[in-house]
Amino acid sequence: MNKLSVWLLLVLAPYVMADQQSLITEVKPIIQGFGKTLKAELKGAMMTGGPVKGLSVCNIQAPLIAKKSSESAWDVSRTSLKWRNDNNQPDEWEKQQLEIFDKKLKAGTPPNKLWAVLETDKETRVMKAITTEGICLACHGKTLGPAVSKKISELYPSDHATGYSVGEVRGAFSLKKHSF
Predict the structure, then answer these.
(1) How far apart are the first and last CA of the chain?
(2) What are the Cα distances from residue 147, in Å, to 67, 82, 121, 144, 153?
(3) What is the mean predicted confidence (pLDDT) over 136-148?
(4) Which residue of 10, 83, 85, 125 has the fewest C-beta atoms within 10 A of its own C-beta?
(5) What predicted TM-score, i.e. pTM, was given to this entire model?
């Protein structure tokens, strides 16, 4: 890298970071709304029908909540390195960011600091890590009940989303806005 490149990097870095922060500020309410709504539906279902009913919420309600969240300029989805729904497989950029989130979390970065932003001339993308909470373990943990295992097999025949512990990166909210 030549001296001019280094100088430009040092001069422009604060502006790039500020722009990324403004994008994070823009999408934060969308992610919070999605997460809050999904969590409430999931908790309600699990209180009345246990984890098996919770799986039905994730299978049926989560895509509807994502669609409703996408009524803004942003397309909203969830993804993971160990996806449950084949429609949620990460693309290459998402995969890279999920791997970075995992490394950063293990190195001590707080979960609320695990964000990624990509801006190109065609699109803007933002990701926010989702960490595994206790409630997640009934369906995503290392040990699952027989009824839960059976329901996962019925709903998600090619499931990869088990074996987690509390605090690990479970996946991420992934938002995309096209630039036209």
Answers:
(1) 33
(2) 29, 21, 48, 8, 10
(3) 94
(4) 10
(5) 0.84
